[in-house]
Amino acid sequence: MSESGDERVSPLQVKDRVYERLREALIDQVFAPGEPLREATLTEMYGVSKTPIREALVRLQQDGLVEIAAYRGARASSYSSADLAEIFEAREILEVECVRRAAQAPGPEAAERLAGTVSSAESAVARGELAEAAASLDDFDEVLFEHLQNTLLDEIRQRLSMHLRRVGRVNLSADSITRSLQEHRAIIDAVAAHDADAADAALRAHLQSVQRQQVEALGV
């Protein structure tokens, strides 16, 4: 991406592209938590001037993905045990309500769509594509979140999803994903049976398992 050349993109488009690409790089652990984000490195990496880089860093600070300190510059944000507790508390509140609604929905559509994301993840694991498998499990959450149907809660969900995706990339292994897939199948079975209480319990058990793994992986 460059500000010059034949693309003829507007300054606003450049700012948005830099923000989006740097956001995804942070989520995908291209920059590890705590790693410095030096303007000179980023301008070379993205082929832009310092202005869109600085503006992107400010936006990412608002998202909670970047920390900017006077005289020290920017760095990828880190997570404390308290941060993780808040993230998973928010996730549980939102996802439990969503999974209960999914289980109470008439017909098989909710369970079938959730099962489709898990099948995609299983196929990716079989090919050794762990990042692709993780992305398919992100899709599982997105299908659940569709049951919110609340604009204000959806704004919270979008910010939460960035952190969940980022934290989830820390402990990415075939074993962890395989275990997660088994837990997802239990959730799907409960949704397919239209058993909201069982879906609630299966989801809570999954989230507790994931939180334990990720706290251990982050060493907090």
Automatic annotation (TrEMBL):
SUPFAM superfamilies: GntR ligand-binding domain-like (SSF48008), Winged helix' DNA-binding domain (SSF46785). Pfam families: FCD, GntR. Keywords: DNA-binding, Transcription, Transcription regulation. One of its GO terms (molecular function) is DNA-binding transcription factor activity. InterPro entries: GntR_C, TF_FadR/GntR_C, Tscrpt_reg_HTH_GntR, WH-like_DNA-bd_sf, WH_DNA-bd_sf. Residues 12-79 form the HTH gntR-type domain. It comes from the Bacteria. This is GntR family transcriptional regulator. It comes from Herbiconiux oxytropis.
